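Open question from group meeting: does this chain pack into something compact, or does most of it stay loose? Before anyone orders reagents, we agreed to write out a predicted structure and look at it together. Recording both the input and the output here so the notebook holds the full record.
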Amino acid sequence: MWSKLLDRFIKALVHQGTLDVTYPDGKTRRYGDGTGTPVCLHLHDNDIVKRMILNPDLAAGEGYMEGSLTIEGDDLHGFLSLVKTMKGAGKAPRLRRFMKRLRKFKRRISQYNPAAKARENVSHHYDLSGELYDLFLDQDRQYSCAYFRNPEVSLEQAQIDKKNHIARKLRIAPGQTVLDIGCGWGGMGLTLAGDYGAKVTGVTLSTEQYGVATRRAQEAGLEERADFRLQDYRDVTERFDRIVSVGMFEHVGVPHYPEYFGKIKELLAEDGVALIHTIGRFGPPGATNPWIAKYIFPGGYSPALSEMMAEVEKSGLMVTDVEVLRLHYAETLRHWYARFMKNIDKARALYDEKFCRMWRFYLIAAEMTFRDGRQSVFQVQLAKRHGAVPMTREYLYPSD
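Structure tokens returned:
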């Protein structure tokens, strides 16, 4: 019964390309228009067939991780490329439409992130072994979208350019106080303190990141100008000339947007500037993919620009600039995946094969979403008054 239901389900979704599915009974059925290189999927037990019907967005990733779903030649790129074409292939089956509506309805519950829950969610991802991140990130451990001034630059240079681009948007000057919300392993804060002479306070909920950032500040002799804290941004009380947040807004949660922007307004000096760098979605509000929510970023969500702006307007802050970094994250993820695969034996030694398959699925799916899908990166500059930044954007692009 389940195989017949899945057969009808796939027929309704696959209209482009070629998908061959071998079911647990050994029978193979072909879907699509016969074009392109066939993707050959094997479903090894009836349980994965059932799960693919009830919640395909979750089951596909889980099945690949555990081995109950395999792809001939381990062609994960080909499989996920085919999945991307399904998104717009006519009208989706009623069950799939219902599941998507249900996820959107539940999102305010799943994204409710009080301090204790936020700490738990952060720990799930960012308190993994530090050695894992050394396998695929740049030397500065920038775990966010780089800025590729041209596609040929190295990942290291693109991450340096990202930090400098943000620093110019913040109009950083020596002696200014800066709050770094979600400071990661300290790279942004150390750059602003060491290269720009700012006095930086960085806050994170990750014990792993806090330890590394603190150690790096000491090793660089910057502990007087770079203070890292294991603290929720909602508990910060000082005022700052500048506020920066890179790759953290995705973890705030829609129910907490008023609280987030209200806190930025409270902590920002009257002539201050804030810069929010976040993954975002092209299109209206939606919901997080259930596999990503369960295994990679629990409580995470990439906002529509309209969701951000509605709360900024209510907060009383002023939007002084918005930049959309298209394809930059796709290039960043391409570099991360290549480095991870080069070091995959070390990743297996740290964790196991199931973890490596999870990480591969994550990095490939993410790159495809940013390259061909509906996600990008927004940099939103905020202030309390018009004169906080220049009238034109020429200050962002000084001559070499």
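Observations to bring back to the group:
The domain at 2-92 is CATH 3.30.1050 (Nonspecific Lipid-transfer Protein; Chain A).
The mean pLDDT is 91.
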